TrEMBL record:
EC class name: translocase
GO CC field: endomembrane system; membrane
Organism: Fagus sylvatica
EC number assigned by the record: 7.1.3.1
Keywords from the named record: Ion transport, Magnesium, Membrane, Translocase, Transmembrane, Transmembrane helix, Transport
InterPro entries xrefs: PPase-energised_H-pump
Its membrane topology: Multi-pass membrane protein
Protein name: H(+)-exporting diphosphatase
Coiled-coil segments on the chain, per record: none
Length: 739
């Protein structure tokens, strides 16, 4: 047994979660002190005068009313899109819940009899029907938490964007703090919510399961499936929305009409800003929550069939949750460095301050992991290793979690090197714009492919070390290590779209050049940090998928996955093709939605008299509707591809072919998720600038729709296979049984 008692563990985990929630509320309260005046319904009307200080000679009231109006339009657009999306997702969740219950219930013919345990031989476990029921409940809880994470993130971002714009009038430091605090609200809410709901679920399920930990933690895997299935649709739907609006706004506005980005004359400008919130914020929130839930579920499942589970050592069993609890505390301290301990006085300090967050959280978390590993784990124990037992010491697990954590930092810094305009890769791409869009695209694609190399080596090293030390459990806690500082990672990530929106609002409200320059500087740093967030997401997805793959292989009773057997090899080839098929679907969806958007923006410029001169207002609502309708319609086929593949492979071809499909999709999906776009140099309106805009427009759907959705593809197929493993093992492989 470790030093921590079960009672203390039961107190520490929820306390950490409540600290995270409390800190998120405190940050939100501090952001809300910046007043936005206007008559948008949420605020106290015209009399509520704007902040003190700011620009000279500008009618404060007029500008602030404009800002409030724009903020309201963005908020209403984002909320209505998400509500419509959630209606579709509600129907899907209901249907899929019934599927889970029927498939898992039929494993033992809906019998209510208790049965011998699969791993803990000699003991009696609860019936398969109970597992079916509790897995369904866990699936619904995961789905609700995922949707909540995305929705709250979007609400906070649309609340903070105008406040960041207004604070930029006082200086870049003040604006940075508002944007970063708002990102922190989302980060801490998500980490604390995920942890708390998982902890409550385990304790409630325990009331029924008692000593049957095998069944308990197997049914908890539904939590990860719920989280990721919502994330997939959120990511794909949001990604199509944001890129349709972005491509439409950029091609007609910047290239054809020569007007600046976020110009209020551009009809797609509100849709573009709404897209930042539903794609980059709500989609990213659900995605990282899914990774967090799945890595926790994979680790808990493998532990439950190891000595932790058989000896009922609750503290050691809860090791993944204690690591996450420590992560919340570490991230809280880290956040103070950005908001309270160091003040930003100059534009050049923004990016270093954000990068410092990554380093500080990683260093502090390493010490935190050492403490947790020493106090929560016995000095020696055995872990399940594909039918054999592996003897492991507590310091082995310290190294497993730490290497995941540091691999995350390496991926973050590599991504930053390849996407920041401070380094040579982006400068080379910008330089290539002088000879037109074609060379720009060629350089940009080459850069994207090249940026995969170092992250893949980092992931490979993390996998080798953690598997050698602690088998599949090592890989799942390594993934958890990468995600342990999720609060800080998300704060940095959400900061990007909030700053981007703030810049858009400043441009639309007609604020001075100085304010716009400050918001541009915040936005430029935000673009890089958003890329770092995507790097973390794909890196953690690779580790999580492998951990889930290991859990699936264990659960399906496969002793080895032999690539030379035809059953496995056909799965491998098909699995490796899936990311390409999926990317093709999402790219085409963005293309067809953007086509409609371009036509609408052109139509408005050509038919509304006085629009280019600024005398008439464009029809923003039609563009918002085009993006909404297109994204909701187009998200269904890619989503269906991912959700149905494991079911079809498992039912018709059996668990071995499905194992091949998972391995193939993991290996090819991780590589493809690395594409990044380049940024532009040269005066706006010049040919070089237009070439950069075209390159940017081509790269956008790669980096914001296909790329980020691929990491959900590889995780979701693995967790779905794990949840349905008992059914596939019993009834799967129909085609091979017939022939």
């Amino acid at each position: 047994m470790g030093v921590l008692s079960e009672g203390l563990t039961q107190v520490l985990i929820p306390v950490a979660a409540f600290i995270g929630l409390g800190f998120a509320l405190l940050q939100w309260f501090l952001v809300s002190k910046v007043r936005v005046s206007g008559n948008s319904g949420d605020y106290s009307g015209y009399k509520d005068r704007l902040i003190d200080g700011g620009e000279e000679g500008v009618d404060h009231l007029e500008v602030s009313i404009k800002v409030a109006e724009i903020q309201n339009a963005i908020s209403v657009g984002a909320t209505s899109f998400l509500f419509t999306e959630y209606k579709y997702l509600g129907i899907f969740t209901g249907v899929f819940s019934v599927l889970i219950f029927l498939f898992l219930g039929s494993v033992k013919g809906f019998s209510t009899e208790s049965e011998p345990c699969t791993y803990n031989t000699g003991n009696i476990c609860k019936p398969a029907l109970a597992n079916a029921f509790f897995t369904t409940i866990a699936f619904l809880l995961g789905a609700i938490t995922s949707v909540l994470s995305g929705f709250l993130g979007m609400k906070i971002a649309t609340y903070a964007n105008a406040r960041t714009t207004l604070e930029a009038r006082k200086g870049v430091g003040k604006a940075f703090i508002v944007a970063f605090r708002s990102g922190a609200v989302m980060g801490f809410l998500l980490a604390a919510n995920g942890l708390l709901i998982l902890w409550v679920s385990i304790n409630l399920f325990k009331l029924y399961y008692g000593d049957d930990w095998e069944g308990l933690y197997e049914s908890i895997t539904g939590y990860g499936l719920g989280g990721s299935s919502m994330a997939l649709f959120g990511r794909v739907g949001g990604g199509i929305y944001t890129k349709a609006a972005d491509v439409g706004a950029d091609l007609v506005g910047k290239v054809e009409r020569n007007i600046p980005e976020d110009d209020p004359r551009n009809p797609a400008v509100i849709a573009d800003n709404v897209g930042d919130n539903v794609g980059d914020i709500a989609g990213m929130g659900s995605d990282l929550f899914g990774s967090y839930a799945e890595s926790s579920c994979a680790a808990l499942f493998v532990a439950s069939i190891s000595s932790f589970g058989t000896t009922h050592d609750y503290t050691a069993m809860s090791y993944p949750l204690i690591v996450s609890s420590m992560g919340i505390v570490v991230c809280l301290i880290t956040t103070l460095f950005a908001t309270d301990l160091f003040e930003i006085k100059h534009v050049s300090q923004i990016e270093p301050s954000l990068k410092r967050q990554l380093v500080i959280s990683t260093v502090l978390m390493t010490a935190g992991i050492a403490m947790v590993s020493f106090f929560a784990l016995p000095s020696e124990f055995t872990l399940y290793n594909f039918g054999t037992e592996k003897v492991v010491k507590n310091w082995h697990l310290f190294f497993c979690v730490s290497i995941g954590l540091w691999a995350g930092l390496v991926i973050g810094y590599t991504t930053e090197y390849y996407t920041s305009n401070a380094y040579s890769p982006v400068k080379d791409v910008a330089d290539s714009c002088r000879t037109g869009a074609a060379t720009n695209v060629i350089f940009g694609l080459a850069l994207g492919y090249k940026s995969v190399i170092i992250p893949i080596f980092a992931i490979a090293l993390a996998i080798y070390v953690s598997f050698s030390l602690a088998a599949m459990y090592g890989i799942s806690v390594s993934a958890l290590g990468m995600l342990s500082t999720i609060s800080t990672g998300l704060a940095i990530d959400a900061y990007g779209p909030i700053s981007d929106n703030a810049g858009g609002i400043a441009e639309m409200a007609g604020m001075s050049h100085e304010v716009r320059e400050r918001t541009d500087a915040l936005d430029a740093a935000g673009n890089t940090t958003a890329a770092i967030g995507k790097g973390f997401a794909i890196g953690s997805a690779a580790l999580v998928s492998l951990a889930l793959f290991g859990a699936f292989v264990s659960r399906a009773g496969i002793k080895t996955v032999d690539v030379l057997t035809p059953k496995v090899f056909i799965g491998l080839i098909v699995g490796a093709m899936l990311p390409y098929w999926f990317s093709a679907m999402t790219m085409k969806s963005v293309g067809s939605a953007a086509l409609k958007m371009v036509e609408e923006v052109r139509r408005q410029f050509n038919t509304i008299p006085g629009l280019m001169e600024g005398r008439a207002k464009p029809d923003y609502a039609t563009c918002v509707k085009i993006s909404t309708d297109a994204s909701l319609r187009e998200m269904i086929p890619p989503g269906a591809l991912v959700m149905l593949t494991p079911l079809i492979a498992g039912i018709f071809f059996g668990v071995e072919t499905l194992a091949g499909v998972l391995a193939g999709s993991l290996v090819s999906g991780v590589q493809a998720g690395g594409n990044e776009h380049a940024k532009s140099l040269g005066p706006k309106g010049s040919d070089a600038h237009k070439a950069a805009v075209i390159g940017d427009t081509i790269g956008d759907p790669l980096k914001d729709t296909s790329g980020p959705s691929l990491n959900i593809l590889i995780k979701l197929m693995a967790v779905e296979s794990l949840v349905f493993a008992p059914f596939f093992a019993t009834h799967g492989g129909l085609i091979f049984k017939l022939f």
